[in-house]
């Protein structure tokens, strides 16, 4: 299934939320075109924030493939909601960690 009308990102974007109950939330979104680029992005996040307890993520490719991971958070509580935001904004070839 090919996605007809999609948008992607021109480059990586990083966002930091104010701490909530002592927890920091940092988002990294980037254009990715294949699993090798996804793995490189995940490695970059792990290297940049080695003390993070979880590196939850989701990806949606232009050919319709999707993947996500809760990375140790309760099942369905992180990866799927991230993926829902990617899909809801009509983005493809995008990963968010």
Explain the overall architecture.
Helices cover 25% and strands 29% of the residues. By secondary structure, it is of the alpha+beta class. The chain has a single domain (13-96), classed as Ribosomal Protein S5, domain 2 (2-Layer Sandwich), CATH 3.30.230. It is globular.
How would a crystallographer describe the biggest sheet? 5 strands, antiparallel
The strand order across the widest sheet is: 1-2-5-3-4
Task: Please state the CA-atom Rg, rounded to the nearest Å.
Answer: 13 Å
Given the structure, what is the number of helices? 2
Oligomer: single chain
Query: In terms of per-residue confidence, which ranges show pLDDT below 50 for 5 or more consecutive residues?
Result: none
CATH homologous superfamily annotation: Impact, N-terminal domain
CATH topology name, in short, is Ribosomal Protein S5, domain 2
CATH architecture: 2-Layer Sandwich
**Tally of individual domains:** 1
Number of strands: 5
**CATH class annotation:** Alpha Beta
**Structural class assignment:** alpha+beta
Mean pLDDT: 90
Summarize the structure.
This protein is an alpha+beta fold.
Question: What labels describe this entry?
Answer:
97 residues, alpha+beta, 5-stranded antiparallel β-sheet, 5 strands, Ribosomal Protein S5, domain 2
Topology:
Blueprint: E1 13-20, E2 23-31, H1 35-48, E3 57-60, E4 66-69, H2 79-88, E5 94-96
Antiparallel strand pairs: 1-2, 2-5, 3-4, 3-5
């Amino acid at each position: 299934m090919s996605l007809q009308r999609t948008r992607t990102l021109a480059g990586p974007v990083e966002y930091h939320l104010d701490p909530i109950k002592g927890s920091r939330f940092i988002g990294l979104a980037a254009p990715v075109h294949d699993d090798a680029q996804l793995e490189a992005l995940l490695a970059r996040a792990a290297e940049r924030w080695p003390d993070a307890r979880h590196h939850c993520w989701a990806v949606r490719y232009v050919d319709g493939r999707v993947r996500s991971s809760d990375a140790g958070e309760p099942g369905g509580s992180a990866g799927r909601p991230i993926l829902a935001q990617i899909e809801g904004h009509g983005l493809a070839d995008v990963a968010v960690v």
